[in-house]
Amino acid sequence: MVGIVEGDMSNPPEVKKVKGKKTYQFENFFSKRNSPVAHAVGFWDYRSFITAAAIYEPMGFGTTGGKLMGMKEICAFLGIVGSQTSCGYGVATGGPLAWGLCYNREMSPSQSYCDESFKYTYPCAPGAEYYGRGAIPIYWNYNYGMIGDYLKVDLLNHPEYIEQNATLAFQAAIWRWMTPMKKNQPSAHEAFLGTWKFTKNDTLSHRGPGFGTAMNVLFGDGACGQGAIDSMNNMISEFLYYLDLLGVGREQGGTNEVLSCAEQKAYNPSSSTASS
């Protein structure tokens, strides 16, 4: 892992000694995350991130394609996370809501996100609410159940674990970044790096390697194929902001065609599928 993550961490969950410079870089990335008006003062911390990242380093997270590409991937991932946890307010300004926990509960207090059609596979637990939690927010009982199965944590019965354990929140988010949600579709990791073999249909749908298609994988028509909407622009802005902060330079983010998914056809339209 490169950039703000220190050295070889191929034996999770043991993490090597955290060096001051790397911690400072993380603090600089998210300087307002512990401000009094943030939603999660003291929650997001550097050690939790590198502990979670260490688990996925052997799978290529931040280690694929050389040092520069690794740094770009970390910026892309954290750009997504920064946008999602700041509730969409501000565009990479380091404002007071940067990296606070943003729960859909606050926006739709009557919505528990329980889908009874999954009652035989991922039945809703009594009293549980499956609103958006985490570094890349998880919604709906079936997503909590599926991610919990892979992480070997009972998130279906205890979705609150995601908001109580920062390492678990990061681990779930990196798993989502690294894992395809459907057969014959890339993960966000594969889409961003360009290791996915894009098809003729992808080309016709304006999908290709880069940050834009990574957003498409994660959010579908919630961010893509809708023109230059705020949800997409905020993520792009965060990504470029972090490239600058890490010393990579925003010019390494690619052309607008690579960065944007404004004209892309969504992989999984919201009318036919749900995503976390």
Automatic annotation (TrEMBL):
Name recorded for this polypeptide? Uncharacterized protein
Organism of origin: Vaccinium darrowii
